[in-house]
């Protein structure tokens, strides 16, 4: 995409935010809102800081991921004021004021202070990680629940600019996935695979939207595997890579699984089976679809695959009802995606009312019907997790499971295939596999 077109899309995005914030502030009785970018926290008893992510509502306006101690004042009918923190410092490189086209819509003010800008008179709100004392001194409401929920809801449906950023985040992440697979095929250790991913996707480890999951063999069955072995595995059954990239704050979230040179032949067939039914589920996506029902359909698809591969001897319906499929896949089908990897308002309706996950599926992060403009992940899985499967041995469901097959596949850990999907008016737009257009 050309830089000019992206600038035009960003301008339209900002115009939409100006109108939406004016409407929401009036509805909730505020004359303005001050958004704080946030700041990193120090480790206890240390002068080192934890990794930092800029507050997402702040990033919704300005693409300045990583900016600290900065403030954005939004007042209807007035140009937004961005107080940009630029300390005088010889220990660190001082940030400079941005020069991009979007800045023409803002009043920019560089400051070496961390305090908020002077607040005008009126009923105002502060949103962000701000202490109560600061809000009290300014006479402002701190993180009012109703307004915060309304701002979350505003982020549920993405603009063309946001879709373009997410698409580019997918493109860059896929370059990393390709390099990681090459490193795996060449016999690299988990750490080397991670480094190959970072190099090809052009990012530092502190910039990834979440800690990459680089799981070889049994580690692929640990859903949020958090380590990187530094020695190559002796046998190479599988690699599960869950890794993303940010562009202007917007995060991609992609998972792929590959069979290694020592894989059981059935494992490759299972990978193909999971990908096929993932694509069938994606084809169902469109406005109005009940995502909870789609999650239930995922379990039926998984039961069908397990039956086709003779890992179970019962119907797909019986596998779901008896809990077998949930032992093979304990997580949800997907989640909202945007400025946060698990983006906001996934378990609330448009009015802010709770939509809790089903009792049998507490890990499902998206429970609302789909709407045009949403971006979600679709990530079915099939895992050999002993702590979930073993309890079934002594239950009636256990007699339907091919336990020798489970034992044979256990060294492979598991499978997850994940794509990022925009919900278009006419159906799904796969941002991971199709980079042709931004149109919804």
TrEMBL record:
Gene3D superfamilies cross-referenced by the UniProt entry: Creatinase/methionine aminopeptidase superfamily, Creatinase/prolidase N-terminal domain
UniProt binding sites for Mn(2+) 1: 253, 335, 379, 418
Function: Splits dipeptides with a prolyl residue in the C-terminal position.
PROSITE patterns associated with the record: PROLINE_PEPTIDASE
Annotated EC: 3.4.13.9
Keyword line: Dipeptidase, Hydrolase, Manganese, Metal-binding, Metalloprotease, Protease
Domain Xaa-Pro dipeptidase N-terminal: 10-151
Record carries keyword Manganese: yes
Binding residues annotated for Mn(2+) 2, in chain numbering: 242, 253, 418
Catalytic activity: Xaa-L-Pro dipeptide + H2O = an L-alpha-amino acid + L-proline
Positions of the Peptidase M24 domain: 165-423
First-tier enzyme category under EC: hydrolase
Recorded name of the encoding gene: pepQ
PANTHER family the record matches: XAA-PRO AMINOPEPTIDASE 3 (PTHR43226), XAA-PRO DIPEPTIDASE (PTHR43226:SF8)
InterPro entries with a match to the protein in the record: Creatin/AminoP/Spt16_N, Creatinase/aminopeptidase-like, PepQ_N, Pept_M24, Peptidase_M24B_aminopep-P_CS, X-Pro_dipept-like, X_Pro_dipept
Family in the record: Belongs to the peptidase M24B family. Bacterial-type prolidase subfamily.
Full protein name: Xaa-Pro dipeptidase
Short name of any one Pfam family annotated for the protein: Peptidase_M24
Cofactor requirement: Mn(2+)
CC cofactor note: Binds 2 manganese ions per subunit.
